[in-house]
């Protein structure tokens, strides 16, 4: 029960990673508050998770939207930001720049700003970057990769700024998250080391550990979680 007494806001909950983080956090004794814009999805996820889970519907992509969701979430001890969105573009047609900077830089910063008055010494903030931001420079991922790179730097900057409050800021950089989370299955059978993709469970377990006190000395870094797939890309 590594997260007993914790209440984690998971902003931008999908049926994949966000759902899996919620499941493993509850298994470790936490309560979770899930956020997304689609209420139907959240109702179904919360129903499957039981009474340790609740939800707040809302768009967190503006300062007011983030403040509103954090306020309605009640007391929280930790924040996990899994807000997503992916598109491909190039410098010849950088059509995704505004959306990617909004989703992967502005939105996480609005959420951290809105949460600061609730977080305290011992709290953890977890961001989700991407191996695309760290290791590869594909010609069709201009806005996505640049935005995720900015988020990776934000982890360091925020961790530095929040040192004196005793709040850790950490991140993971997944490779490819395959499909939806399914509680209770043997997901390890679904991948082998070196595969580019893995089920949400593999990434969610690392996030859950990062929230725990076992990871207290990990701060201001983004950990690649890719089963070593990046070693095949260079
Ligand atoms: N999938 C991958 O292979 C992969 C690889 C590397 C990194 N990542 C990163 O890992 C994280 C989770 O990935 P994922 O595939 O689970 O993400 P996702 O489905 O693309 O996004 C997560 C959820 O964020 C919610 N969301 C988006 N904008 C929002 C907003 N303004 N306010 C509130 N909720 C919002 C969406 O739900 P609603 O539409 O209901 O709001 C969505 O289901 C993301 O940060 C993603 O960029 C993913």
Mean pLDDT: 97
Strand content: 15-25%
Structural class: alpha/beta
- Total discrete domains: 1
**What kind of oligomer do you see?**
single chain
Strands ordered across the widest β-sheet = 3-2-1-4-5-6-9
Describe the structure.
Helices cover 38% and strands 17% of the residues. The protein has seven helices and nine strands. A seven-stranded parallel beta sheet has the order 3-2-1-4-5-6-9, with helices on both faces. Strand 4, helix 4 (97-115) and strand 5 form a beta-alpha-beta unit. The radius of gyration is 17 Å and the shape is globular. The relative contact order is 0.16. NADP nicotinamide-adenine-dinucleotide phosphate binds next to helix 1, strand 2 and strand 7. NADP nicotinamide-adenine-dinucleotide phosphate is lined by residues 12, 14, 16-18, 35-38, 41, 59-61, 82-85, 107, 128, 130, 174, 176-177.
Task: Provide a compact summary of the structure.
Helices cover 38% and strands 17% of the residues. The protein is of the alpha/beta class and 234 residues long.
What is the topology?
Blueprint: E1 7-11, H1 17-27, E2 31-36, H2 39-49, E3 53-57, H3 63-72, E4 78-81, H4 97-115, E5 124-128, H5 131-134, H6 142-162, E6 168-174, E7 176-177, E8 197-198, H7 200-211, E9 222-225
Parallel strand pairs: 1-2, 1-4, 2-3, 4-5, 5-6, 6-9, 7-8
Helix pairs in contact: 1-7, 3-4, 4-6
This protein binds NADP nicotinamide-adenine-dinucleotide phosphate (NAP).
NADP nicotinamide-adenine-dinucleotide phosphate is lined by residues 12, 14, 16-18, 35-38, 41, 59-61, 82-85, 107, 128, 130, 174, 176-177.
């Amino acid at each position: 029960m590594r997260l007993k007494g914790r209440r984690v806001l998971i902003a931008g909950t999908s049926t994949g990673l966000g759902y899996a983080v919620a499941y493993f956090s509850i298994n470790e004794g936490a309560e979770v508050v899930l956020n997304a814009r689609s209420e139907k999805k959240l109702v179904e996820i919360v129903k499957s998770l039981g009474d340790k889970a609740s939800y707040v519907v809302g768009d967190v992509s503006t300062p007011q939207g983030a403040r509103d969701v954090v306020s309605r979430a009640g007391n929280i001890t930790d924040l996990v930001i899994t807000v997503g969105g992916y598109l491909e573009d190039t410098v010849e047609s950088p059509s995704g720049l505004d959306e990617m900077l909004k989703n992967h830089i502005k939105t996480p910063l609005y959420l951290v700003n809105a949460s600061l008055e609730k977080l305290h010494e011992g709290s953890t903030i977890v961001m989700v970057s991407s191996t695309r931001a760290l290791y590869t420079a594909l010609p069709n991922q201009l806005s996505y990769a640049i935005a995720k790179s900015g988020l990776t730097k934000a982890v360091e900057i925020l961790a530095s700024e929040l040192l004196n409050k005793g709040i850790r800021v950490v991140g993971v950089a997944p490779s490819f998250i395959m499909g939806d989370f399914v509680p209770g299955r043997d997901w390890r059978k679904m991948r082998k080391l070196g595969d580019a993709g893995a089920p949400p469970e593999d990434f969610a377990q690392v996030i859950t550990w990062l929230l725990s006190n076992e990871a207290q000395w990990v701060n201001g870094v983004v950990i690649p979680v890719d089963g070593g797939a990046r070693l095949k890309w260079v």
